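Researcher: Here's a chain I'd like modeled. Treat it as a single chain, no partners, no ligands.
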Amino acid sequence: MPETTRQLTEADAAEFEKFTAAIPERELDEAFVELDHWLVYGTFADDQLVAASSMYPWRGSQLADLGIITLPNYRGRGLATRTVRAISARALADGYEPQYRCQPDNAGSVAVALAAGFTLFGQWDVVPLND
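Model: Modeled as a single isolated chain. C-alpha cells:
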C-alpha cells in the first residue's frame, strides 16, 4: 500500500496514541507534535501512522510554528519531508508563513528542513536568568 499524507483529526486519536507510544519521550518533547494543535498532518504507511507534524500560530502572529516526528524504523525515507511539505502548503493556503525551528546540531531535523525547502533565517539564543 502506498504512503498517504493527510490532515489528522480527533478521529485519528487512537492511531496517534499508538504512534506516540512508539517514539522515545525525549524526542516527543523536542518535536512538540500534538493532535490538538491548530493544524496536524500525518503520513501513513504499512497501515499505520509513521510521521506526524503539527503547527500552531506563533505568539499571535501569522507565523505557523511546526514540529515533525517520524517513527524510528521509517526515518531516512523522505516521509518527514513529505509531511512537512503537506502541512506547510496548507498553512500557506490559509495565510500563514511556516516556521521550522530546530536545534542546529540535530542533523536529521536540519536535513528535513532543507529538503522541505526551508532556509536558515536566524538563531535564537536563550539567556538564562540568574537566580
